[in-house]
Amino acid sequence: MIKIGLLCHRRISSTKHCFSNIFHQDLLRCGRGMVTLIVATTIDPASIGPASALLAMPGWHPGPPIQDVPSFVNRDVRLLKHDSSIVREDHLDTRWEETTGETVDEIIFLSKHTAASKRPALTVHPIEGDQLPVGGKPAWAAPPNPRIGPWFRLLKTIADSQNLTPEFEVTLEATHHGPVTNAPTMFVEIGSTEEYWKRQDAAQAIALLVWEGLGLGGGDAVGDWSRNCFQQKILLGIGGGHYVPRHMDIVRKDGVWVGHLIAGYSLPMEDPGPSKAQANLEVGGTWKQAIRVAFDTTRAAFPLGEVVAHLDNKSFKGWQRNAIVGFLAEQNIKVGKPSDFC
Predict the structure, then answer these.
(1) Closest CA to 109 of 74, 144, 138, 139
(2) Transmembrane segments in this chain: where (predicted)?
């Protein structure tokens, strides 16, 4: 069972109830000490570089250690700096809560991105656990951090202003790898080779993203879902490759919220052979479970929102698309077109 902290699972349609829910959450935040965890590791230059640049900004002071991992505090943000693989640090949210009594509202991991293309990139993505060699566990997904869509757009703005583009591509990635956590989570990464992992201008851009995105400089935080709960739509991406270009084209638009992005390779479907043309065909594989887990955790991360699936239709064969659309209808999951998210 997935613990979502103080996130509300009920869908409340009225504006009155929306404001009441936000006020109640704000009281809980003040009373129980809800915090944001930023997680970095010293063994990854694309992680410790942005963390060091962030810690050089005003307002930080030492916080309590968690199992010999030092922490730093700035308002309601906590930065952890450990010395192990970032995708192996499971349950940091519960470990922090047990140590400090503070409830973890969200986690943001700073990490490197690798790609066969070796192209320089700045990426954002949610996480799940199907790929055991790189952390996580089967049939599991962390709730996606609601900031993913707004921060993707903010990162593009920062990269443009810092003249990192077009050298660096700013992109979303499909949901992938661990570690295991119950709090809404996202990865922010620098890619794709050691030359770029060590780039100080890229590290500064990521640090500025966190600084501005969390409102540490005194401005409004970016991507705070609790202030935007008026039955807005949240994109659940289904299909496509690792960089989900057709979903990303929608998320580029201002105001679009994004949950899990499930690449085609995360939807194992057994080819039914000659019988694939039959109506009401039962297609084997674990694809249904992957969609259901992604939908449930996305809905939990966006209380009061409407999760709407967007299919990369061109990435599926006809029998695959028909099976997915049929399953979504059975589960009462709405399918939207690009124009539905504007």
Answers:
(1) 144
(2) none
Question: What φ, ψ does residue 106 adopt, rounded to 5°?
Answer: -165, 160
Rounded to an integer, the average pLDDT of 315-335 is 95
Per-residue b or e along 319-335, where b marks 16 or more CB atoms closer than 10 Å to that residue's CB = bbbbbbbeebeeeebee
- The more confidently predicted of residues 75 and 133 is 75
Q: Does residue 117 have a pLDDT over 80?
A: yes
DSSP category for residue 129? S
- Give me the pLDDT at residue 6, please: 34
Tokens of 98: 């047990």
Q: Residue type at 273?
A: G
Do residues 87 and 44 make contact, with C-beta atoms less than 8 angstroms apart? no
Edge-to-edge strands, sheet with 233-238: 257-262, 233-238, 306-311
Is the predicted pLDDT of residue 264 greater than 90, yes or no?
Answer: yes
pLDDT at 211: 98
Reading the block at residue 284, the tokens are 């084997």
**What sections of the chain are H helices per DSSP?**
15-32, 45-55, 92-100, 148-161, 194-197, 200-213, 245-251, 287-301, 318-330
Sheet with 69-74: strands ordered across: 61-66, 69-74, 77-82, 34-41, 103-114, 185-192, 121-125, 169-172
**Residue 39: φ, ψ to 5°:** -120, 125
The dihedral built from the CA positions of residue 249, 256, 209 and 238, taken in this order, carries a sign that is: negative
Helix (H) or strand (E) holding 65: strand 61-66
Residue 82 phi, psi (nearest 5): -110, 180
Q: What residues form DSSP beta bridges with 103?
A: 34
The whole-angstrom separation of Cα 111 and Cα 109 is 6
The answer to whether the beta carbons of residues 92 and 179 sit under 8 Å apart is yes
